[in-house]
Write a structure and sequence with these properties.
This protein is mainly alpha-helical and about 70 residues long. The protein has one domain. Helix content is about 60%, strand content about 0%. It is built from four helices and no strands.
Amino acid sequence: MKSIIENIKTKDFSRVRVGIGKPTYEFDRINYVIGPIPKEERKILDEGIEKAADAVIEILKNGIDNAMNKFNT
C-alpha cells in the first residue's frame, strides 16, 4: 500500500479489502500474512477473492456507495 501511495502521490482512493483473519499468536503476524495458506483455508480465501472481484465490477458499473451497500454486509 505504501508504494502505491508514493507512486500516485495521494491517499485519496477507494480500496477493496479482503480479510484474512488473525494469527493464533500475536507475535506470529508476519508469518501469518506472508506464509503459506493452509489447504483448509484456501477455499475461504478463494471465495473472498471472488467477492472482491465482484465488488470491483460493481464499483465500476454503479459507484462505490452502491458497492459498499451491496458487499459490506
